[in-house]
Design goal:
InterPro entries: PH-like_dom_sf, PH_domain, TPR-like_helical_dom_sf, TPR_rpt. It comes from Salpingoeca rosetta (strain ATCC 50818 / BSB-021). This is Tetratricopeptide TPR_2 repeat protein. It holds the Pfam family TPR_12. By secondary structure, the chain is α+β, with helices and mostly antiparallel strands. Among the domains are: about 120 residues, no CATH class; about 140 residues, no CATH class; about 100 residues; about 90 residues, PH-domain like (Roll), CATH 2.30.29.30. It has 32 helices and 13 strands. It has a seven-stranded antiparallel sheet with strand order 10-9-8-7-13-12-11. Strands 2-1-4-3-5-6 form a six-stranded mixed sheet, with helices on both faces. Helix 13 runs antiparallel to helix 14, helix 19 packs antiparallel against helix 20 and helix 28 packs across helix 31.
Length: about 775
């Protein structure tokens, strides 16, 4: 395939001329002809004698209609050719109305490729992932022709998905999704009626199941996808995100179009605004969502009155938005308004009433008022049991909510009892292999870990892992992360052999899913190396940490904290010292940390001596005491040497949050954490965190605690939902013009935005996290 055909395109006039030729040659059938029909019946007959592409003939006849391509067209050959060409012309008209009004030249494969030959047959494998991708970057704009929206054919074709992904993954390349004008109105109606149904249709992207007319092309595209970091999973997610953003754009555009037509006081407008509000809430745009909900509410109050069914539903939606913002009192206010309407119009024993009780329970739990949360959950439970029965998913969900509330109150046994009820119903009604079942297993694992019962926690985590493997597959990054979590648990128990096995499973999946050159891969390699070091196998330890160092250097650069930490670990294992260029600065910060640790060790020693007779778990305390007696004995010597990350740091690195030897009791762990606190001031405040596998942002109370973790939870007074060990953080940086903070860890990036009640800027959070990272490395 010549370079010229990768870079040149045809004019709008040439597209219009070809459409006219179709009408003239096939007046009765052209509207039913597919792109493939047009190829066989018009393009090939015209170009067969010269054995060339259509563009070559066009160049000879009208060279002014061929120029550098400005738009790459992605479409399915099963489309009606007239529909495709009309979409191109509609797109060109829209571009012409823009301020710059630059001429459009389309790279359109029907015209640009020689249809008399298999132009891709002899291309080398690297062409697909390098030359082709770079060609799209050079063009700078991908136009995806999407029709019909109810059954989007391009999302099932390997070529189209690869073209879309190449556009998305090229920084600076614009991707436009275009429907025929004839389908715009139908899409607007569908968005108003059920936005979720629209998005569900459009995001059924499974690149691994896509097909291609030419089996060779399919094989080469799949090879290119598999060679890309993240493979099929990355392609699927990128395309889905692009389509969701487009759906949001279309939804907002539909509202503005109705407003411009003077239809902004109709029931249809109210319905569309309500749907757009729900879309915006999913994307974490709380204030905009509330504005759309309030527009809808104004119309519904006028048409239905205060006790209208839709009015009560809107009160609930506005409450959801305020709850997501962290404004719990305002959320409760709107939930109470919804509850009053539902009780008045539907009665106490109605599902809408029960759902509102649940919403109030969630808001009170988020606020930290766990007693009120329990009270409302119990009211919801009573209604669900009476109306739906004990064996129903909604009943199970409410049992789970009660478990969450009691977990937040640190009443772990009660939490377990409710989780077990939820589990029994979920398994009976939804089945063992269901995401809700996996969630409940994870909840049980978490509460048992909080109790210090690691064997039980591991058992539940393993059940959750089994479901993850079955539902997402063995080769999914989430599966790798689950293996890593189990490795962490076994490492906390001191079962290093088992931990290494699980880390190696995680490594294999990370390599296949994300590639060898990925920070998550490097982190897993280093964890394996450090465990080999704990076992005394220096040769294996050096090999793994060296690999980790190579990957960190290649992906994060030589000056990244994780790269420097891996370098120090490698030198320590080999018996060397930190290189001279870092020695002085490392000595200063290292000495300070060692002095802090020395004070903590001495304080811990005194605490244990004074409390040894209080607790029955004397043997674990004695072991911990002897461990830190040894640390104190060597601390003065260590303080005079440059700091390094030894195997003892693995407790922090793996994210257990305990740092306590196997068998240590809950009180002993509390003593350990209290005694080892770093004297630095904690950083805390409200932020919004993006939820996993979803675009929505939810408020959370975040804190850089004084034992080396970034913790976040529902409220300042509640138990942290998660504690991220800073020693495992790969990077912390601002993104999107400083509007987001990205904290990257093994297998996952945590994304935060400012909250309405934030007192600390994202820049200050970023600085604080990075300073703590540097302090722990």
């Amino acid at each position: 395939m010549a370079d010229q055909r990768l870079t040149h395109g045809v004019s709008v006039a040439a597209v219009r001329r070809f459409l006219d030729d179709l009408k003239r040659e096939f007046p009765d059938t052209y509207t039913e002809m597919t792109t493939e029909d047009a190829c066989k019946q018009l393009v090939v007959p015209r170009t067969r004698q010269d054995n060339c592409a259509y563009v070559e003939q066009l160049r000879k006849q009208s060279p002014e209609h061929v120029n550098k391509a400005t738009v790459f067209v992605s479409h399915a050959w099963r489309y009606k050719i007239a529909d495709v060409l009309n979409v191109l012309l509609e797109f060109a008209d829209e571009q012409a109305r823009k301020d710059d009004g630059q001429p459009v030249f389309f790279w359109f494969d029907l015209f640009m490729n020689n249809q008399n030959a298999n132009v891709t047959a002899n291309l080398p494998p690297e062409w697909w992932s390098t030359t082709f991708k770079q060609s799209i970057a050079n063009i700078g704009h991908v136009l995806l022709v999407l029709m019909p929206w109810r059954d989007p054919v391009p999302l099932t074709r390997a070529w189209c998905l690869w073209e879309i992904f190449c556009g998305i993954s090229n920084e600076g390349t614009e991707v436009t999704i275009q429907l025929p004008n004839s389908e715009e109105q139908a899409l607007q109606h569908a968005i108003r009626d059920s936005y979720k149904a629209v998005t569900d249709t459009l995001v059924r992207v499974q690149a691994e199941r896509a097909d291609a007319f030419n089996p060779h092309d399919k094989h080469m595209i799949f090879t290119a996808i598999e060679s890309w970091a993240g493979g099929f999973s990355a392609v699927n997610q990128a395309v889905k995100d692009q389509l969701r953003a487009w759906c949001l754009q279309k939804a907002v555009g539909a509202v503005e179009a109705m407003r411009a037509r003077g239809e902004d006081s109709t029931d249809a407008f109210a319905g569309l605004c309500g749907a757009v509000g729900s879309v915006l809430l999913q994307f974490g745009e709380h204030d905009r969502a509330i504005a759309y909900y309030e527009t809808t509410l104004t119309i519904r109050l006028r048409t239905e009155g205060e006790n209208g069914k839709n009015v009560a539903a809107l009160y609930n939606n506005i409450g959801n938005a305020y709850d997501s913002k962290g404004e719990y009192d305002r959320a409760i206010h709107y939930y109470e308004k919804a509850l009053a309407v539902f009780v008045e119009t539907l009665g106490e024993k109605h599902l809408s009433t029960a759902s509102t009780y649940s919403n109030l329970g969630i808001a009170y739990r988020n606020k930290g008022d766990y007693d009120n949360a329990v009270a409302f959950y119990e009211k919801a439970l009573a209604v669900f049991v009476e109306t739906l029965g004990e064996k129903h998913p909604s009943t199970a969900s409410t049992y789970g909510n009660l478990g969450n509330a009691y977990y937040s109150k640190s009443e772990y046994d009660k939490a377990i009892a409710f989780y077990e009820k939820a589990l029994a119903i979920t398994v009976e009604t939804l089945g063992e292999k269901h995401p809700s079942t996996a969630d409940t297993y994870n909840n049980l694992g978490t509460v048992y870990a909080s109790k210090g019962e690691y064997d039980k926690a591991i058992a539940f985590y393993e059940k959750a892992l089994a479901i993850t493997v079955e539902t997402l597959g063995e080769k999914h990054p989430s599966t790798a992360a689950s293996y890593g979590s189990l490795g962490i648990a076994y490492n906390s128990k001191g079962d290093y052999d088992k931990a290494i096995q699980l880390y190696e499973k995680a490594l294999a999946v990370f390599v296949e899913a994300l590639g060898e050159k990925h920070p998550s891969t490097a982190m897993t390699l280093e964890n394996i190396g450090l465990l080999h070091d704990k076992r005394g196998d220096k040769e294996q330890a050096c090999a793994y940490v060296q690999q980790a160092l190579n990957v960190f250097t290649a992906t994060l650069g030589p000056d990244h904290p994780n790269t420097r930490k891996a370098e120090r670990n490698l030198r320590r294992i080999r018996g060397g010292t930190v290189n001279a260029q870092h020695a002085s600065t490392q000595h200063v910060s290292g000495s300070r940390l060692q002095q802090q640790n020395l004070l903590a060790h001495r304080h811990l020693l005194l605490r244990f001596i004074s409390s040894a007779v209080v607790y029955q778990s004397f043997a674990p305390q004695r072991n911990l005491l002897m461990r830190f007696l040894g640390a104190v004995a060597h601390a003065d010597v260590d303080a005079r040497r440059p700091a390094h990350t030894g195997s003892d740091d693995e407790d922090k690195k793996t994210g257990t949050g305990h740092g306590c030897p196997r068998g240590c009791s809950v009180p002993a762990r509390a003593l350990y954490k209290d005694a080892c606190k770093c004297p630095s001031e904690p950083v805390a405040g409200w932020l919004r965190k993006r939820r996993r596998r979803r675009a929505a942002f939810r408020p959370c109370w975040c804190k850089l605690d004084d034992d080396g973790h970034l913790a976040y939870g529902k409220s300042p007074s509640g138990t942290a939902k998660r504690r991220i060990p800073l020693s495992s953080v790969l990077s912390a940086e601002l993104a999107h013009g400083g509007e987001e903070l990205h904290v990257a860890g093994p297998g996952r990036t945590f994304v935060f935005r400012l909250h309405a009640h934030s007192d600390t800027s994202l820049a200050d959070w970023c600085t604080a996290i990075n300073s703590r990272i540097n302090a722990t490395t």
